[in-house]
Amino acid sequence: MESTFITAIQNIATPEVLLVIFLSAVYGLFVGSIPGLTATMAVALLIPLTFYLDNLSAIAAIVTLEACSIFAGDIPTTLVRIPGTPSSAAYTDDAYALTRRGLHETSLGVSLVFSVFGGLFGALILIVAAPQLAKIAFQFTTYEYFWLYVLGLSCAAIVSTGSRLKGALALMIGLMFSTVGLSEVHSVPRFTFGFDELFTGINFIPAMIGLFGLSEVFRNTLTSKTDEAAEKLESATKEEDDHSLFRHLKPVFGGVLPHFWKRKFSWLRSSCIGSTIGMIPGAGADIAAWISYAVSKKFSKTPEEYGKGSLDAVGDATSANNSALAGAWIPALVLGIPGDSVTAIVIGVLLMKNITPGPEIFQNTEQLVLVHGIYLTFIVANLLLFPLGFLAIRSGSQLVRIPRRILMPMILMFCVVGAYSINGSYFDVWVMLGMGMLGFVLEVFDIPLGPVVLGIILGGQLEQSFIQNLTKDDSLLSFFNRPISAGLGLFCIALWLVPVIMPLLRKKWSSPA
Amino acid sequence: MKPLFMVPLVVDSWYLPLHSKDSNSLHWQSCFLKYSLRKPSGTELMNQRAIIEVSVRYKSILLSLLLLLSGCAAESVDDYPDRPITVICPWSVGGATDRTSRQLAVFLEQELKVPVNVINATGGRGVTGHSRGLNARPDGYTLAIITGELNMLHWQDLTSLTWHDSEPIISLVDGAGAVFVKKDSPFQNAQELRDYVKQNPGKLTATGTAAGGIWHLALAGWLDFCGLNADDIKWIPMNGAGPSLQELASGGVDLVCCSLPEAKTLYESGQVRCLGVMADEPLAEFPNVPTFASQGMNWSISGWNGLAVPKGTPAPIVNKISTAVKKIIDGEITVQGKTFPETMRDAGLSTRYRANDEFAVFLESNDETLGKLLTSDAFRQMSSKGTGPLVFPGLLAVAMCVILGCLAVQKKVHALAPDVTKDTVTSQGVVNTVLVLLGIVAYQLFAERLGFVLTAGAILFLLLWKLGTRWWISALITLFLIPGIYSLFAQLLRVPLPRGIFGW
């Protein structure tokens, strides 16, 4: 064990591997911060290169790329309200509200610090508990998945700002969109209205870009207030006459590290949620972010701030989505079952490199060195994210200084290119346009947009697991016939009943005794 | 180089890129022809003149743009390939088809000396990817990976596409179906399974792919072959082999039917047992797995994939591609000291190379076999069972009504009324928003013809200008941003941005 660990350190600490890690970190930050390009796409683009790299470098590149691009997704989320990756959708409103108050650098600083520590925690879980935890993740059947999706979706409705009912309505809208296209379970095209392109359904990346990004463009162009807001930002970000060495660090990290220390327990909680959910195959960083956001709001002393610019929310959700990344490697390495879309590619790469993921990967000394190399890369990548992320924040922050009348057409350009690039299809641009208008209308009615996105993402899987369960046994009781599914199911039902029962109880208690 | 003044001629072919099929088959020349055959109306002429004027007025900008960007659209068969090639893979990342596509892409890149990118056009049970690959412009710059589903989907009325829409190049992977059970399952071989099903029809559940997919067909066909009903084993539709095997290992289903390499990890670690492989001969990589034939059931079926190009691709280009592919499968090209067949073997994929005509013959017979199965009574009957496709949307609609009802009961209906007091909408704002909308629509209409750089540049410049930036600042931003975006996306990140008349 120790000797392989030392070999792994020696292998990593070569200039070539470190250079690969550095370059992929830069590449990851770059790709992640462009809306429309996801971490998965970045990794897929890297595959031809992995042929030319040795095993360790190839895997190290993927790990670094993943960690950096998930953080980088927070940059456009915070600055221009376009979630860079789907896992940022949970806290988009919070992060952007902070930007409007001129606190974008603080918000991104919190994102960075919590991401780094969340990622490190995930790595720790991966190192300590991989084989044991994978066994639990392997107990999940379609029943458990069904309840897990219900849980994720319920959280989205519960945490939404304003009325929960409106959150639920937004969720239903999203779920409805997810039913468009060829139903995977029935092989029947639904709601396609004769358009061949709708066969595939509505892709959530253009939908997300439209709902958040384009609707923001509309909001800005429709009102004449655009430049006023920009000026406000400018005055808020004016740098003081501070010539100390730390004047650049201050806006990003000032107050963030004490804040982190104050919230160490909520960080721990979110990271635990993140890595647990990451471990479950098929439930990735996005569900992790939603659930930890909901839990964080539940335990918060200031739940009314959530959705209107809460640093706590941003911190908790980002630590969860970053720790979920390492979690997803657990089933991938131990069982050869991908935890998310990135690890699906990783398994392909490993097989190409003649390494079969599975229990024996932990027994074969040569492969154990590689596994330890993966652990170490997770740590190195997260540590490297600190300085590089800081630079990315500083350079990205210049964006908000650009007058809105210039920024908006540029954002529009990125919306169009981003929506197009995910599949190279014009239809996705129409989807983005439609969703942009829908997003604008929903905002006018004060209906939150986050649940719509999650509904589109999870709707297909929810329906699939629902139908699969019914196919196995058409009684609804079968949804509770396994211990884990019963537990999860009862928990979900309790979650729905609490807001209904609580007011009644409160009335009873507060009535004169 | 094509003359600049032809640009506005495209204007009157009012053409929506929405229907990508047409967009690919129509070339800009055909628009020109269409134009010259028809006398333009007065307004059209005015529009064109206006655009020509614009292009004259900003000629200097356009010229400098031209200088900035190299690349020419002189597309001739001899120069092929002179720009990146796209491979459309109809299945998602990580799967066997994706792995094959990506490996092939790396080797093709080495041989053809241009970047070869893989796009996963997933969804619609393969309809999306197959139609995108085979309906692409037949210029050799879009290659299609086709899989067994191409010979199934049209029998199930999900698409009108058949293999006849393709120019088959080579078949690559040929994975025979195999049946897996969990390690603590009582079944040791396929006969025991058959005997159990005979006595207990409908008791077992199986999965592996969507309902009506290749592995469902394999299992149902086998039951039919054994004289049992095709639905004596309940099929749980799943999205691919990965989740199916996870479901098997967690005890959610009794059987999984998929190809052996897909279950390699779990099989080799002893988590699952293979009851048999639906092939005539034992597989070279897994000689210990018995075939169904050796167990007295002469049943074989396999899922395959291969490379094809859209029908109508010029013969010299097809030849160039197949020569390149021939060299690759013959092991004449190495990447990192490994040949293509070696890397495929390492990935555990069973290959069966059938070049051009042989592939076509195989496609014909495979199409016939699958068609017979899919149109047989045994298979027809079972497709109509289960929960209907509108149950889930129906439930959602009910839930939506309940929520709206609750909102009404809570007297929060007024909260649904638009809140216009927050920000004032100005008339200038409305005009600006309309401009933004027109910008997106204009991009959709012209990008495919004019290419990304011209279209996006014009739109960005006009928007910046109309939103109140001085014209030279707008021009400057456009001049830097658009080529920047183009080189970032199209060259660095290899996103296939629209290439119009000039090749960019």
From TrEMBL, chain A:
The keyword Transmembrane applies. Keywords: Membrane, Transmembrane, Transmembrane helix. Residues 18-454 form the DUF112 domain. It holds the Pfam family TctA. The chain crosses the membrane at residues 12-30, 108-133, 145-161, 168-186, 198-218, 328-352, 372-393, 405-423, 429-458, 479-502. The keyword Transmembrane applies. It comes from the Bacteria. This is Tripartite tricarboxylate transporter TctA family protein. It comes from Gimesia panareensis.
TrEMBL record, chain B:
Pfam families: TctB (PF07331), TctC (PF03401). InterPro entries: BUG, Bug_dom1, DUF1468. Keywords: Receptor. Residues 382-498 form the DUF1468 domain. The keyword Ligase does not apply. Belongs to the UPF0065 (bug) family. This is Tripartite tricarboxylate transporter family receptor.
